[in-house]
Design brief:
Layout: H1 7-16, E1 24-26, H2 30-37, E2 44-46, H3 49-56, E3 60-63, H4 70-80, E4 83-87, H5 94-107, E5 111-114, H6 121-131, E6 138-148, H7 157-172, E7 178-186, E8 196-203, E9 208-214, E10 216-228, E11 232-236, E12 244-256, E13 263-274, H8 283-295, H9 305-323, E14 329-330
Parallel strand pairs: 1-2, 3-4, 4-5, 6-9
Antiparallel strand pairs: 6-10, 7-8, 7-14, 8-9, 10-11, 11-12, 12-13
The chain binds nicotinamide-adenine-dinucleotide.
Nicotinamide-adenine-dinucleotide is lined by residues 1-7, 26-29, 32, 49, 64-67, 69, 73, 87-88, 114, 116, 150, 160.
Length: 331
């Protein structure tokens, strides 16, 4: 449901998946149904979700519409009896997200949330680097996610782009909790939505992450720096092949107490850089495999509603901080 920019990618992956058959397509705009539906003549095609459910009787419905409609459309699918794969962010408020999770539980159905980056080969490499201790203790994380557009009609840039960073960080850091946020931003469009934002996240244990989000950059940048005590890495999603570069560079600090004069000795290490081979297969295909496994009851890494809810909590805290000129907000 929703055949704008992202929906057709979902449709194509359901169609080519060995686990699913694409049984129906829906968009409220008939021209989009016609255009996106052309390659799938045997699938039910409609402008109304009620007709889609009745005619196509799907086991799972994927919702790729603007954020404000995620909750009503997901509810309609769950009440019909279908599992849901909802786009990020799953809801516009914590209360709505909680209601959706409660409905999925009541219906004994799965609510999945589409966080595709964690299924990319590059993010998996970064996760392994952290989990195996190759990065050592992380000092900080810095992320830049900026491009020109795509303006969303009903949310600001934080709600649109930060879910990617938050889901990547949750995956890489093994579910480490964000404890506080600060966010500032500015608006340069007539709708009044914040289109440039700077977000600081504090994690349990003192780790910090900084996110720079913008819809107004002349160039597309998708770069995350993970700075660690043993090594550091740069994940650049725009790079064609060397998406992860690992730097054996570091800095260590020693306190010298000789003659009771506390002196901090800083030593720098400049070693080699290497770029490991990264699986470049499309993330959505891997994601659908995990979702199918989860529905069949096998252990899976699929992102579920509680992960989506946690991200909505952080986004809501960012919104509070933005409204208070960057105040530090506890979660
Ligand atoms: N997971 C990702 O990597 C990723 C990437 C891009 C977008 N998204 C998400 O996908 C969603 C859609 O984004 P987009 O850029 O494709 O938007 P879009 O505006 O290009 O497309 C949205 C489509 O939904 C349709 N629509 C709206 N309300 C509807 C309704 N009630 N019933 C049926 N159709 C309806 C519109 O007609 C439109 O064709 C957003 O939530 C966005 O955050 C996710």
């Amino acid at each position: 449901v929703g055949l704008g920019y992202w929906g057709p990618n979902l449709a194509r992956n359901f169609q080519t998946s060995a686990d699913f058959d694409l049984v129906g397509l829906c968009d409220q705009d008939p021209r989009r149904v016609e255009r996106a539906g052309a390659p799938y003549p045997s699938a039910t095609q409609t402008t109304d979700i009620a007709e889609l459910l009745e005619k196509a009787t799907p086991d799972l419905v994927a919702i790729a519409t603007p954020v404000a409609s995620h909750v009503p459309l997901s509810k309609a699918a769950l009440e019909f009896g279908a599992h849901v794969l909802c786009e990020k962010p799953i809801a516009r408020s914590v209360r709505e997200a909680e209601e959706l999770l409660a409905l999925a539980r009541k219906q004994r159905l799965h609510l999945f949330v589409d966080h595709p980056f964690k299924y990319t080969g590059a993010v998996r490499v970064v996760q392994q680097l952290y989990a195996t201790g190759a990065l050592g203790n992380l000092f900080y994380i810095d992320s830049v996610r900026i491009n020109l557009g795509l303006f969303q009609p009903d949310v600001d840039v934080t709600w649109d782009l930060a879910p990617h960073d938050l889901s990547i960080l949750s995956y890489v850091l093994g579910g480490k909790n964000v404890t506080h946020v600060r966010a500032t931003g500015s608006t340069h469009n007539p709708h009044g939505f914040i289109d440039v934002a700077y977000v600081d996240l504090e994690y349990k244990g003192g780790l910090t992450a900084h996110l720079h989000l913008s819809w107004l950059s002349p160039v597309k940048v998708r770069r995350m720096i993970f700075s660690g005590s043993r090594s550091s890495c740069i994940y650049d999603d725009v790079e064609a092949s060397e998406k992860v570069r690992i730097y054996d560079h570091g800095v260590s600090f020693e306190v010298d107490d000789v003659e009771q004069r506390r002196q901090v000795l800083v030593s720098y290490r400049r070693g080699e850089m290497r770029a490991p081979a990264v699986d470049l297969r499309e993330a959505l295909a891997a994601e659908l495999t995990q979702i199918a496994a989860h529905i069949r009851g096998a252990p899976s890494g699929a992102s579920l509603g509680d992960e989506g809810l946690e991200i909505v909590r952080i986004l809501a805290a960012c919104e509070t901080s933005l409204a208070k000129d960057g105040a530090r907000v506890a979660l």
